[in-house]
Write a structure and sequence with these properties.
Blueprint (H helix, E strand, L loop, with lengths): L1 E2 L3 H7 L22 E2 L1 H6 L2 H6 L15 H9 L2 H14 L3 H15 L5 H18 L2 E4 L1 H13 L2 E5 L5 H12 L6 E5 L6 H9 L2 E4 L7 H17 L4 E2 L18 H11 L7 E9 L5 H8 L9 H6 L10 E6 L3 E2 H5 L21 H20 L5 H11 L4 E2 H17 L12 H10 L4 E4 L2 E4 L11 H19 L3 H17 L4 H14 L11 H14 L3 E3 L4 E3 L4 H27 L7 H18 L10 H13 L3 E2 L4
Parallel strand pairs: 3-9, 4-7, 4-8, 5-6, 5-7
Antiparallel strand pairs: 1-16, 2-3, 8-9, 8-10, 11-13, 12-13, 14-15
Length: 648
């Protein structure tokens, strides 16, 4: 990486001075489904009877399910794979039979081997586990009914949000419970190291793919043809995570489009009439990997997935993880998305089995669809009161009197609802709700003498160094921030506008928009901001702030209203950790004497720089230690051409 001493970098450095300081339908306008506790019946009846009941799901167009061996043969004998096998054979000078054997080996390594007996075993075990971990698992049954109809009419792709390893287990459990066809799930090769468990996951519908394919043409051909064959034949719903990996921060991650490209291609080539993409929003009262994620963000290596590690994790069964919510969104038709956007006739110019790059229109459509689907996930994410409490505690590190916290939580609840948040708030009063959240998250916040503060150590323990104390504090702060981050999608656009109003030093709408657009660009890797939608996001932010009477808007101007100070100050404080973190990265790059800095050394070096600022007392923001924030800041600087990335 090469640092440019440019005006752009200087502008970003000025972000620190601001510390005081989906584009689809507006969220909240559509009526949301009611949620029902699916564990209620499980607590009243036999888990064994549930697991062994008659399972006869409706399938695509009433077709008889294809055997796994028949699916394997269809993939290996497909014209598309045979074409690539011929190409690889010619390029490598190997006999075609050897390349064919290699393709068969790759498919066997990858493919699922669904066995109903294994599914029943998981249904029994998971019933026990989920009833122990969660007070309730609330599902929108209307969404399940929509999914059941969609599976019968069209090939279906399930796209859940990804916050925990529990996500894909719960998805299969729900579909089995409601007698829907079980999904075939894309899983990372990491699970293959779990000897017994890995094979059991394969027999319950998981297929395993490498994290990256590199330039392996044969592997890509086997993988894509495997997925497309299942899709074309309606073999089973296909499930994968648009974000690619679990979010360690609680925020949605920028979507990956590789697998989405593959599942949409059969429609572009006219091989299916339509494909339905179903966004699924999964949220937790308390995340199982809470402290593990915080440590990973601070540079502690991710533990390797092993069977012995899973057995050691049994202690989590003694913990209370509150309520889990799963919301199945409305199916999104690929045919409707592509109407008037992609000319499918151009795919007729080349035989369908010959691989070809998607046209520019198709690439743009896939990218826009990916962002839209993640936005739909966000809008249907059920939020619990603790997300509001965590937000307030992070903005008040010295603590808050309990009555003040309850009063502020009630105010923030009203603001969030006016912005379209999907809040699950039991009852009408704040005191019991806030108290329940504090009790569930007693590891993150404590009440002492009627005052609530984050549960972080104030002084070093016996034999503890200052660096170790800072690390422990950072774990607590980042764990708490992961819950605040769950609600950021509700506030991010008004928050950007609030900072822009302070930055612009002008009430003229065009000047405020210029500042908004700059901040929007800087944080486009940090939050889900759909490419090319800055004007629409600006208009949405103006509407929301006007709706809550925080600003007054005219044709040319936008100004803070008399009663808008508290709202705008809160929204600016939401962005403050990110502004400080990005400014620290800029400071580090300006002081870095090595012109060519290796990217793999950047995060540890930037984290150490931030740590020294914290130890010196010049930085109070522990979120600046997060590797996720540092990587996003670097991506923003590259996008702004303040830093150049060069392959060496």
């Amino acid at each position: 990486m090469r640092v440019r001493s440019s005006s752009r970098l200087a502008v970003i450095l000025k972000l620190t001075t601001l510390q005081t300081l989906y584009s689809t339908d507006h969220p909240g306008l559509k009526k949301r489904d009611e949620l029902e506790d699916m564990l209620e019946e499980r607590r009243r009846s036999s888990d064994a009877r549930h697991a062994l009941r008659c399972y006869a799901p409706a399938v695509y167009k009433g077709l008889a399910p294809r055997e796994v061996s028949a699916l394997r043969g269809a993939v290996l004998q497909s014209d598309a794979l045979q074409h690539v096998i011929g190409q690889v054979s010619a390029e490598c000078g190997e006999r075609r039979e050897l390349v064919q054997e290699e393709a068969a080996h790759l498919l066997d390594e990858m493919a699922h081997r669904l066995r109903l007996g294994t599914v029943r075993f998981f249904a029994y075990v998971l019933s026990k586990v989920f009833k122990t971990l969660f007070r309730s698992v609330r599902v929108n049954e209307e969404g399940v009914q929509r999914l059941q109809q969609a599976i019968q009419d069209h090939p279906v792709v399930l796209l859940p949000s990804h916050r925990s390893y529990m996500d894909f287990l719960m998805m299969s459990y729900i579909l089995y419970t409601y007698d829907l066809a079980l999904p075939v799930i894309a899983a990372g090769m990491d699970f293959m190291s779990m000897k017994v468990v890995g094979e059991m996951l394969r027999m319950s519908g998981a297929f395993f793919i490498r994290r990256s394919f590199g330039g392996d043409k044969l592997y890509w051909a086997v993988f894509s043809e495997y997925v497309k064959t299942m899709l074309r034949t309606g073999y089973a719903p296909i499930e994968f995570f648009l974000e690619g990996t679990r979010s360690r921060t609680g925020k949605s991650l920028t979507p990956k489009t590789g697998l989405l490209n593959i599942v949409m291609e059969p429609f572009f080539k006219g091989e299916v009439f339509d494909i339905h993409l179903v966004p699924v929003s999964i949220s937790y009262d308390r995340i199982l990997e809470e402290s593990l994620y915080a440590r990973e963000l601070l540079g502690v290596p991710k533990p390797k997935e092993t069977t012995s590690g899973l057995l050691k994790a049994r202690q989590i069964l003694r913990e209370d993880y509150g309520v889990m919510h799963v919301y199945f969104g409305h199916p999104v038709s690929v045919r409707s998305l592509a109407q008037g956007r992609v000319k499918r006739s151009q795919y007729n110019l080349v035989p369908r089995h010959i691989p070809q790059r998607p046209c520019l229109a198709a690439q743009a459509l896939v990218g826009e669809a990916a962002f839209r689907l993640v936005r739909l996930q966000e809008q249907a994410m059920v939020l619990r009161p603790w997300t509001l409490v965590a937000t307030l505690l992070l903005q008040n590190p010295d603590g808050m009197d309990l009555p003040v916290l309850e009063e502020q939580a009630a105010w923030l609840r009203r603001l969030a609802l006016s912005f379209g948040a999907f809040l699950d708030w039991p009852g009408r009063t704040c005191r019991p709700v806030v108290g329940a959240g504090l009790a569930l998250h007693k590891n993150l916040a404590r009440v002492s003498g009627g005052r609530v503060r984050l549960a972080v150590a104030e002084t070093p323990g016996v034999g503890q160094t200052a660096e170790e104390l800072a690390f422990d504090r950072a774990v607590g702060v980042l764990s708490c921030a992961s819950y605040r981050n769950q609600i950021l999608h509700v506030f991010i656009r008004p928050a950007l506008l609030s900072v822009a109003l302070r930055t612009a030093n002008s009430s003229r709408k065009d000047e405020v928009y210029t500042c908004f657009n700059f901040l929007w660009t800087v944080f486009s890797n940090e939050f889900i901001l759909c490419p090319g939608a800055s004007v629409q996001d600006f208009e949405e932010a103006c509407y929301l702030l006007g709706k809550c009477c925080a600003v007054q808007e005219s044709q040319q101007d936008i100004v803070m209203s008399e009663g808008g100070h508290a709202t705008l100050a809160f929204l600016r404080a939401l962005l403050d950790p990110f502004l400080q973190g990005y400014q620290v990265v800029c400071q580090y790059l300006c002081k870095e004497t090595e012109e060519n800095l290796r990217e793999n050394k950047f995060v540890p070096a930037a984290r150490n720089f931030a740590l020294q600022l914290i130890l010196a007392g010049t930085l109070k923001c522990y979120e600046a230690l997060s590797s996720d924030l540092q990587k996003n800041a670097l991506a923003a600087l590259v996008q702004l051409e303040a830093v150049t990335k060069v392959k060496v």
